[in-house]
């Protein structure tokens, strides 16, 4: 897992979370999607920041990757509770992002 | 040009800018790279925000795309003054991002 | 209006928007707050980025201030439709942010 | 230490880092300021994100506060090596931000 592949997975995940969050707000039963909206919000932010730290070669990137894995896992678990396409796509992007983060962590040791 | 392709170009450009900025700071003649560092800094930020607005379906996305084109063009012109690989790659990413933004603008009209 | 006062108003507005958005998601009638949530989301982002551009002395700060005024005005107008305390506080922060942006624009000419 | 005071300290610190970074790039001896520029860059980003998580009431705010303390401490230590006014101001903002983060951590337990 190199820098660029990780950054791409992080960017795809951030975009999937932003899209899922916005789509949840257009669902008939918004009330039911509140937890999903909140975790999408947090996950989009941490993925964006992590991508920024990795791309800039910051020595704090590893700490953010660790936090990113935690939030992505939580977001995937929440999205997997719902049948909407945007939730399924978001869960998939989160899971792939977690895998990319873990591969990158291993490669850097 | 659909949403996802544009978002990908914006993410690649943001990452190229962050990498170029960091690499400029490691060049022997940092003084010579100051203008490049500053435009990389601005370009990374506007690309990240524009991607975020586009991904979330915001109705203000078009305004940010317009500003993004301007800053990307400026960043490309600055990077093209230098022979470093990271500058060349960043200039290329900025030019491709501008093209993607323009195609997206046309497609939305 | 100097740099630091403007940055402070932008930061207060960004935080008010984030808080309003989160509080809207906890209201009994979330459906009724969807437009408010979306404009809070956009307004928080543009205020954060504008603060970042102003603080870093970027020559693109003025363009972002212009966009920031537009989104803050829209967010204030939306929040003023609602009686929740968080909406009232957010509307107030948006209005003060617009005033700060305009004073800063005038001072820079 | 309440939410709003912490957010204000984070915003002041982020702005001080952005200003210090930009001012370092205008110093005669930029080469000498490279480490300061890089830590300013990281510190501005983590303070902005932490403020965003705290303001939105995210349950991940505490993790980011922990990381924020670490990067702020590092940034303060680097800035304290230099005599420039912007470095001194940035170091002061970082130290105050660390204190605010720690008070907030204690208050939340």
TrEMBL record, chains A, B, C, D:
Mind telling me which CDD domains this protein's record contains? DUF326
InterPro entries per the UniProt record, alphabetical: Csp_YhjQ, YHJQ-like
Q: Where is the signal peptide?
A: none
PANTHER family recorded = CYTOPLASMIC PROTEIN, CYTOPLASMIC PROTEIN-RELATED
Its name, as the record gives it, is Four-helix bundle copper-binding protein
């Amino acid at each position: 897992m190199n820098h660029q592949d990780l950054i791409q997975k992080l960017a795809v995940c951030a975009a999937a979370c932003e899209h899922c969050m916005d789509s949840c707000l257009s669902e008939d039963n918004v009330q039911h999607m509140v937890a999903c909206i909140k975790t999408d919000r947090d996950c989009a932010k941490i993925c964006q920041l992590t991508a920024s730290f990795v791309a800039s070669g910051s020595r704090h990137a590893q700490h953010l990757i660790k936090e990113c894995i935690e939030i992505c896992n939580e977001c995937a678990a929440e999205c997997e509770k719902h049948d909407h396409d945007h939730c399924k796509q978001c869960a998939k992007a989160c899971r792939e992002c977690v895998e990319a983060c873990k591969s990158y962590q291993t490669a850097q040791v």
